[in-house]
Amino acid sequence: MKRIVMASLVGLVSAGLLTACYYDKEEILYPGSANCTPVEAPAFNTDVLPLLEKKCNNCHSGSFPSGGISLDSFAEVMKYVNNGSLMGSINQSSGYVAMPKNAGKMPACEVANIQKWIDSGASNN
């Protein structure tokens, strides 16, 4: 009888641990991501640059950008698009410096908008 009670108790506790306190909603895990709207055809000036200004350019702009990496103009951004380091860092891929530094990963919607802009030819529009 004790074994059955103990097994039942272990089962209930395990079920509670697996379901309690788990959030799989992006807006809970990454506040601010709810403000992102997927863009069908992202443009540099209206969709990509504002994201970089919000997430990156407090460190990567101006006269002395962090790491010598400036992301405040199309020409500068294209250097890192062309060598793959922009998306490598934003995706926090192995072999790249994870960005934003000391912060969580950018929301998936924002990353997807930048990737979509690159995939569509990374135009200066």
Structural class: mainly alpha
In whole angstroms, the N-to-C terminal distance is: 73 Å
Strand-residue proportion: under 5%
Sheet having the most strands? none
Low-confidence stretches: 7-23
Mean pLDDT level: 82
The number of helical segments is 6
* Beta strands, count: 0
Oligomer: single chain
The gyration radius over C-alpha positions equals 21 Å
Strand-and-helix sequence, N→C? HHHHHH
Morphology call = globular
Total tally of structural domains? 1
* Helix share, percent: 40-55%
Task: Describe this structure as you would to a colleague.
- This protein is an all-alpha fold and 125 residues long.
- The chain has one domain.
- The protein has 6 helices and no strands.
- The longest helix is centred in the first third of the chain and has 18 residues.
- The radius of gyration is 21 Å and the shape is globular.
- The N and C termini lie far apart (73 Å).
Q: Any key phrases for this structure?
A:
125 residues, mainly alpha, globular
Offer a quick outline of the entry.
The protein has 125 residues and is mainly alpha-helical.
Q: What's the SSE blueprint?
A:
Layout: H1 2-19, H2 26-29, H3 44-55, H4 74-82, H5 85-90, H6 108-119
Helix pairs in contact: 3-6
